Amino acid sequence: QVQLVESGGGLVQAGGSLRLSCAASHSIFNFNMGWYRQAPGKQRELVATITSSDNTNYADSVSGRFTISRDSAQNTVYLQMNSLKPEDTAVYYCNAHWRFTGTNYWGQGTQVTVSS
């Protein structure tokens, strides 16, 4: 069982930046990691993923503004969010995907609110 704890969310004005962190209780070396978000009344959607070999993938809506990175030595994944827009407002969840069995682990989420 892997515990994931997100931090770094908050209230920011449009155009501002935030950096989310996700600390894992175990080594993330063999996990593909990701950030997802869920806005009120909407389904959870993928924001960005990073594989164990540091290949990244982004949703079109955040490409060029958000950057996902990982520090396997610190068992931590980051999401740098720049040029934030009101439509980025959501609860952001960290995901760890065990690539051998497909098992998924989720954090409790952190709220990001972007004011216009």
Count of alpha and pi helical runs: 0
Rg over C-alpha atoms, rounded to the nearest angstrom = 13 Å
Mean pLDDT: 96
**Beta strands, count:** 11
What's the SSE pattern?
A: EEEEEEEEEEE
Classify the oligomer: single chain
Q: Show unreliable segments.
A: none
Structural class given helices, strands, pairing?
mainly beta
End-to-end CA span:
40 Å
Shape: globular
Approximate helicity band: under 10%
Strand content: over 45%
Quick one: biggest sheet? 7 strands, mixed
Care to describe what's here?
With 116 residues, this protein is mostly beta strands. Strands 2, 4, 5, 6, 9, 10 and 11 form a 7-stranded mixed beta sheet that branches. The relative contact order is 0.32.
What's the short story on this structure?
With 116 residues, the protein is mainly β. It is built from no helices and 11 strands.
Task: Compile the SSE list and pairings.
Blueprint: E1 4-7, E2 10-13, E3 18-24, E4 31-38, E5 45-50, E6 56-58, E7 66-71, E8 76-81, E9 90-98, E10 104-106, E11 110-115
Parallel strand pairs: 2-11
Antiparallel strand pairs: 1-3, 3-8, 4-5, 4-9, 5-6, 7-8, 9-10, 9-11
Features:
116 residues; mainly beta; 7-stranded mixed sheet; 4-stranded antiparallel sheet; 0% helix
